[in-house]
Amino acid sequence: MMLMYALEKRGRNFIAAFALGCVLSSVYGFLAGAWPFGVVEGIWSIIALKRFLSTPH
Predict the structure, then answer these.
(1) 26: closest CA among 10, 3, 49, 55?
(2) 5-10 — which CB contacts under 8 Å span 24+ positions?
């Protein structure tokens, strides 16, 4: 996830990969019982998805 964040400027596919990593981290957080972590990662995934959708092809 952090590698994709660092490579976001190279293309929107990296932004999509970062968003996916955030979603997976959020799911892990909720499954592990660390719901504050799950919430924060869920928010980051929404932000990354919006950034992905607003980035030109």
Answers:
(1) 49
(2) 8/51
SS (H, E, C) 1-57: CHHHHHCHHHCHHHHHHHHHHHHHHHHHHHHCCCHHHHHHHHHHHHHHHHHHHHCCC
Q: What is the pTM of this model?
A: 0.88
- Encode pLDDT of 7-46 as tens digits: 998 999 999 999 999 999 999 999 999 999 999 999 999 9
Question: What residue type is 46 in one-letter code?
Answer: I
